[in-house]
């Protein structure tokens, strides 16, 4: 137990964490360019927020939440997603009273009690955005374009963008009736979940993964068949914008978000390379959600991208990551007086903005050189008793294999210049 982490979690250790930092860097840069501001939200929230905000009939709320009573006997849930907390924060902080739309992004861990497998974990990480206060289909196109831009900056290829419109509550009332008529004669052959969904939320039958339910639902009426003129125009406008941006997509009528406050655009991005868990991101419009959470009627749209699956796809596709960085300089120290001098030098180097390291295990000079090589240090400074007495240091360029003696008091400036130049 003490040396085993809980199932479905992972450690992101040095050597891997640089990849995560790289993704974060690219995403933050993207958010700056698209003019999204960061919001940092709690890791846990009141359980009711997700029951209301994600929906009682969803798998997340029915089966997957980490819910517990805290010591004050309040029901708390580790966040399974970021939209409901962002909506709560928008309302609680009265962001609706400022200029609209409010464009936010977040990064961080999410928690779902899922069956762990490749690409599916219990603690996983998402990058997400939410736009509150604009119904314009150009916003739908912007968030989709932003997600696709992120993938392409990482070098991902061959992704498939699936697009659909689930209309407004009016369209869905029509669809609901049509679906019930369509599925009623087939109910006996369908899975228990779908038989439950038939009454509560027949739309969700369309995204059932069970083979026989999928077979039955081929030919079922779809959201697109039931769009009212306004919703059809909105959907067409989103597609026109995507065409202007030269973003290819497939219309996928099975892509549904079954809850009443999910409206209009729904989208998902698939990667072929990572097996069954192929969705590397998804999102959609939720013009009814903010009102359902107790706020003023406010349109909203957002997406969430799964980092573990993005990394998996990047590795499968052989995408490039920035090379690992070692220290700029390693101080190899021989003898006690040199160690005192090394402490002083290290501080000067670091204050000058260089990444500097030294030996702490009393290694021989030879072993220190080897260690510096393992650390991937660019330069090694050799500081021995003899050098100390002559007020010089030996500077070795590890890549070039050359070394030279330089006056100790010129070391910091000299190294800064070399590191800047290379
Ligand atoms: P969702 O919030 O369910 O729309 O998920 C958005 C994205 O998060 C998905 O496209 C996945 O990339 C990722 N994701 C969702 N659930 C998991 C999970 N259990 N493990 C890893 N990634 C996940």
Automatic annotation (TrEMBL):
PROSITE patterns: AA_TRNA_LIGASE_II (PS50862). InterPro entries: aa-tRNA-synth_II (IPR006195), aa-tRNA-synth_II/BPL/LPL (IPR045864), Anticodon-bd (IPR004154), Anticodon-bd_dom_sf (IPR036621), His-tRNA-ligase (IPR015807), HisRS-like_core (IPR041715), HisRS/HisZ (IPR004516), HisRS_anticodon (IPR033656). The keyword NAD does not apply. L-histidine binds at residues 81-83, 112, 126, 130, 257, 261-262. It is found in: Cytoplasm. Coiled coil: none annotated. Pfam families: HGTP_anticodon, tRNA-synt_His. Its EC number is 6.1.1.21. It catalyses: tRNA(His) + L-histidine + ATP = L-histidyl-tRNA(His) + AMP + diphosphate + H(+). SUPFAM superfamilies: Class II aaRS ABD-related, Class II aaRS and biotin synthetases. Residues 23-322 form the Aminoacyl-transfer RNA synthetases class-II family profile domain. Its main location: cytoplasm. One of its GO terms (molecular function) is catalytic activity, acting on a protein. The keyword Cell division does not apply. Keywords: Aminoacyl-tRNA synthetase, ATP-binding, Cytoplasm, Ligase, Nucleotide-binding, Protein biosynthesis. It is an enzyme of class 6 (ligase). GO terms for biological process: histidyl-tRNA aminoacylation. It comes from the Bacteria. Belongs to the class-II aminoacyl-tRNA synthetase family. HAMAP family: His_tRNA_synth. NCBIfam families: hisS (TIGR00442). Homodimer. This is Histidine--tRNA ligase. It comes from Desulfotomaculum copahuensis. The lineage of its organism: Bacteria, Bacillati, Bacillota, Clostridia, Eubacteriales.
């Amino acid at each position: 137990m003490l040396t085993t982490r809980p199932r479905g979690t992972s450690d992101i250790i040095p050597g891997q964490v640089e990849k995560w930092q790289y993704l974060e860097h690219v995403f933050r840069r993207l958010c700056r360019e698209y003019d999204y501001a960061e919001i940092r939200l709690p890791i846990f929230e009141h359980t009711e927020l997700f029951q209301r905000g994600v929906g009682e009939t969803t798998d997340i709320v029915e089966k997957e939440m980490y819910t517990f009573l805290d010591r004050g006997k309040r029901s708390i849930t580790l966040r399974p997603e970021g939209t409901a907390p962002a909506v709560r924060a928008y309302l609680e902080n009265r962001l609706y009273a400022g200029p609209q739309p409010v464009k936010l992004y977040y990064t961080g861990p999410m928690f779902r009690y899922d069956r762990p497998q490749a690409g599916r974990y219990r603690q996983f990480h998402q990058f997400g955005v939410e736009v509150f206060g604009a119904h314009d289909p150009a916003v739908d196109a912007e968030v989709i374009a932003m997600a696709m831009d992120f993938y392409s900056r990482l070098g991902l290829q061959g992704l498939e963008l699936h697009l659909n419109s689930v209309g407004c509550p009016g369209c869905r009332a029509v669809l609901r009736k049509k679906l019930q008529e369509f599925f009623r004669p087939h109910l006996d052959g369908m899975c228990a979940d779908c038989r439950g969904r038939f009454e509560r939320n027949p739309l969700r039958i369309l995204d059932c993964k069970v083979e026989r339910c999928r077979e039955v639902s081929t030919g079922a009426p779809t959201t697109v068949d039931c769009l009212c003129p306004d919703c059809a125009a909105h959907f067409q406008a989103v597609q026109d914008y995507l065409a202007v941006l030269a973003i290819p997509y497939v219309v996928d009528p099975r892509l549904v978000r079954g809850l009443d406050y999910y409206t209009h655009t729904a989208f998902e991005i698939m990667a072929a390379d990572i097996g069954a868990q192929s969705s590397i991101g998804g999102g959609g419009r939720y013009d009814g959600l903010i009102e359902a959470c107790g706020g003023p009627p406010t349109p909203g749209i957002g997406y969430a991208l799964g980092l573990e699956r993005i990394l998996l796809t990047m590795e499968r596709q052989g995408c490039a990551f920035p090379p690992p960085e070692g220290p700029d300089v390693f101080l190899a120290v021989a003898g006690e007086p040199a160690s005192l001098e090394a402490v002083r030098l290290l501080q000067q180097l670091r204050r000058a903005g260089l990444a500097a390291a030294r030996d702490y295990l009393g290694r021989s000079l030879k072993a220190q050189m080897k260690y510096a090589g393992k650390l991937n240090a660019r330069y090694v400074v050799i500081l021995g008793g003899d050098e100390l007495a002559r007020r010089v240091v030996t500077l070795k360029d590890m890549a070039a294999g050359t070394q030279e003696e330089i006056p100790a008091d010129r070391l910091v400036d000299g190294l800064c210049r070399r590191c800047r130049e290379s």
